[in-house]
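U., I forgot to send this yesterday:
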Amino acid sequence: MDFGLKPNHGHVPVMRDRMADLLAPAIEAFGADAVIVDGTLGAGGHTEHFLDTFPLACVIGVDRDPAALRDASNRLGRFGDRFVGVQARFDEIGNAIDEGKGPVFDKARTAGIAGALFDLGVSSMQLDQEERGFAYRVDAPLDMRMDPTTGITAADVLNTYSHGDLARILKTYGDERFAGKIASHVLKEREKEPFTRSGRLVELIYQAIPAATRRTGGHPAKRTFQALRIEVNQELDALENVIPVITDALGSSGRVVFMSYQSLEDKIVKTALNALSTSTTPAGLPMDLPGTAAGFRSITSGAEKASEAEIEQNSRAAPVRVRGVEKLSHPSP
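Result:
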C-alpha cells in the first residue's frame, strides 16, 4: 500500500487491508446482494479499496461534510452505480436506508447490510484544511464543524457556555487536568473581546497551564481542541446513537467494525459491543433462557491495533483501536 497523501487524496486510510479482511466473510457470503455502509466516507480510501476488492459489492458512503462527499464521489465515479453517496451525520444512516431510492437501497432493505465500517474522529483532510479550525498549530477561524453549513462553532462554545459547562466538556471530552483554570481564563478574556480565531485560544491555554506541565505530554492545546471538536459535532452522541441503528440494519451474518482514536470513543464501542455479544441469562444456569441469548459474536480479540510498520509509515494510525461484531444467523432461542 502507498502511504503517500497525494495518491490517497489527502487522507491515508488506516488499516485498509485489515478492514477488508474483517468484513470479507460477510460480503462474500452475501454475493451480489452485498451492500457495505462506509459511515465515515472521508476521502473515500476505504470505500475505493472495498469496491476494488469485492467486485460484486456496492457501497453507501456517508459523510456530513459536503465538500468531502463531493470530492470522494468524484474519486469513486469510476465505479458507476455501485457507489451511492449520502450527506448526513452517520447516525442518520437508518433513515437513509429506509428512504433511499435505487437498487443499492433496495438491496439494503431486502437482504440487510452485509458490512459496515465507522472510522471515527477527524480526517487528515479536515486537519490539514487550515480554515476549518481543527488544528492548533496554525491560526485559523474557530469553526471545527464537520458540516460547515450547520450547527454551532467552537467560537460559539467559547463565547456563550458557562464556566461550569466549559470546564465539564474540557474535562470529560479532553481529559484536561486544568479544565477549570482554562475555563476561567476564557470567561475573563471573552469579556474583553469574543473569541474568533484559534491563535488567541492557544495563547490563552499556554497562559493557563503551568510551564512544567507544558513541557510534557504533547502540545498543551491538544486536549482542549479535541474537547471542543467533540462538543461542536456531538461526536459521542452520534456514536452512541448509531450502534443500535447499524446493528439492527445488518443482515444475517452481517458484520460491523468500529475504529476508535481516543478512549471515550473506544469505551462506548467496547461497552455496546460487549452487551450485544453477551447472553443476559443469569449466571449459573445450564442454558440460555428464551430471548436472552447473544445476537452477535465478536470478530476481534479485544481491540486490534495498527502494526508497527504501518505506524512508521502513517503516524495517525498509532492510536487506533478496532472492534467488530457479526450478527448471528440463528441465535439460540
